[in-house]
């Protein structure tokens, strides 16, 4: 219903988020949770609200678990075998097997700082397992006599804390909170933890969800996939193309049949060659542009100056302003906040105007649980304004072509673009 009302493309990543501003807490609700039941636990509804947004961490864990569970935080042994799979692939398969085959999740372990007083935080070694969250009273020992129960998981909900350094005197602005799933009137009833970094917080929160909800979360994921497939069949081919761009791979059609290019170096060569072909195609289209009034060939620049209302191409058309991934007038800090709220999954991105450099744009994207900013420069080429991310080596006539290209090829980016952060109408 919210997808239809907001006029956005349906996908499995849309969520209802709960915001408790008086406690500075936020969380994304699971698909099976009832809004009325959640609302019953609001002590004072003044300021509390539900928000509609995308959370790319919601189900990405079932696709790329490596992003969420670094080996250093998992008590899991990756066996050596004679297969051609790399250790990373074997680790990924082991995680997927644990998540989908009903086996117990491996222990998640690591250091976090626990709030013990008004401004006092103490570092402990924590262990998350199916029976609850524990901390060790003796270094990193996991001996049962040294593990102290911090909290059971069934009677609490896990929240992000907004600006914890300011509101809770946390040592870092990366904090999570265990809140009893009942009415809470005093922040002293909250259990606050400060992980070492954003990647660690994502690992703890994802592990908490998998352990607490288990099979229900897997069922939600399967149901969301089926719903997405049904709706995709009813959409136009262009919409399906946009939704499925992430699943495309580099292909080689030089032989009698096509083959998937698995070698990263060869795939990069394919991407570079495709970029050259793309540039030749764009340049040829620009040079061979014809005026519909006179029928005589004109270059795009002169045609634009004579008939801007009839045919406007490139940046001057302003088509990028209508794209859901373009966020006009936001700052670098606002871009970081927007992407972080939607989940720091590799490749999540938006495009914005540069507020410090005239006539320039910025691609803001997530990678390794951080937000990276890449400047998109405008340059003149054959009397036409082009855009480029790599100083002019690969040029595009507008931002739409640039985004389409980097959704297929990483090029000089740390990874290819996956999900865009939409502007809600």
Automatic annotation (TrEMBL):
Residue ranges annotated for the PH domain, each copy included: 105-213
Residues of the Ras-associating domain: 1-57
Record Gene3D superfamilies: Phosphatidylinositol 3-kinase Catalytic Subunit, Chain A, domain 1, Pleckstrin-homology domain (PH domain)/Phosphotyrosine-binding domain (PTB), SH2 domain
BP terms from Gene Ontology: signal transduction
Keywords for the protein's UniProt record, in alphabetical order: Cytoplasm, SH2 domain
Highest taxon, organism lineage: Eukaryota
GO cellular component: cytoplasm
Pfam families: BPS (PF08947), PH (PF00169), SH2 (PF00017)
Keyword Nucleotide-binding included in the entry's annotation: no
Domain SH2 per the UniProt entry, residue ranges: 325-421
Subcellular compartments: Cytoplasm
Family listed: Belongs to the GRB7/10/14 family.
Protein name: Growth factor receptor-bound protein 14
Organism: Capitella teleta
Source species taxonomy: Eukaryota, Metazoa, Spiralia, Lophotrochozoa, Annelida
